[in-house]
Here is the input.
Amino acid sequence: MDPVEEFKILRKFTRKYDTMAESIDRDYKSPFHVLVSTVLSTRTKDYVTDKASRNLFSRVSSPSDLAKMPTKAIEKLIYPVGFYKTKARHLKEMARMLVDKYGGNVPNKFEELVKLPGVGRKVANLVLALSFGKDAICVDTHVHRISNRLGWVKTKSPLETEKELMKIFPKRYWKGINHVLVSFGQNVCRPVAPKCEECPLKDHCKYKSH
Here is the structure.
């Protein structure tokens, strides 16, 4: 089956699941809120990220507010997200850079976003897609794993996966890939003990046939 057709099936199938991308998009509309929440979400469970984001945003509403906050105070607000001490430091440095270099605004270009402390390709692409409506594919562990399991790609790194998916999918699908595959990866196509019998693509999946 064509990868685009398989993606359409997964998109319909995963509508019943909530995801962090939905939570960020629904509750935190500004690019700043999306950026901070996405940084916090790295290697962290959705419910932990959501709680940490709400704690932090109850105290700050702008890069200027965050830049002024002591790092220790940020740590307490975002605990227990993964690597919370490193993220607290990055968030403060990122906020200061947003104020000093970008006038308190989040840049809307990939090349500028990845210059911010704590922001890599994954975070930058998700911010571009969610905040600015740009065509970007955010490849995290779920997207990388599932794309390979389904045989869409044969890649060894998220960057390779991103490049290959850009070749396979028309741009109109790019923004939705992370949202759909993260939800699918958390609930069905899990890293360990995937629920293959619940998968709508089980008859076509290369992983299940192994």
Q: What stands out?
A: The first helix runs from residue 3 to 13. The chain has two domains: 3-17+136-198, 20-132. The mean pLDDT is 92.
